[in-house]
Design a protein that fits this description.
103 residues; mainly alpha; two-stranded antiparallel sheet; two-stranded antiparallel ribbon; 2 helices; 4 strands; elongated
């Protein structure tokens, strides 16, 4: 006998078990959404009490790892799409390591 929450699951047929499983999945998702919503409200309230805004939690941009060597404005962190100046350097036969910023 498999009993859960006062229900003898062994008395249910396959379709009833599948319906129960769908209902359980829906209820789990609903309760999870509610818990996340409540957590966000609590976090927002705490942040406001401390004088913090959403911008305070934004990720800082990655530090530059590469530079063009011709202009200090041309830097790249090495993440995302390669800038045109990197592509031109590579197309001319240069290596990415040539552009590394000295550390």
């Amino acid at each position: 006998m498999i009993e859960k929450a006062g229900v003898d699951l062994s008395l249910l047929d396959l379709e009833e078990l599948r319906a129960l499983a769908r209902d359980l999945g829906d209820e789990i998702a609903r309760q999870q959404d509610e818990a996340e919503r409540e957590a966000r409200l609590q976090i927002r309230a705490l942040a406001e009490r401390c004088g913090l805004t959403a911008e305070d939690f934004a990720a800082a941009p990655d530090a530059p790892k590469y530079h063009s060597g011709t202009s200090p404005d041309f830097t790249w962190s090495g993440r995302g799409r390669k800038p045109e100046w990197v592509l031109r350097h590579l197309a001319a036969g240069g290596a990415l390591d040539d552009l590394l910023i000295e550390r």
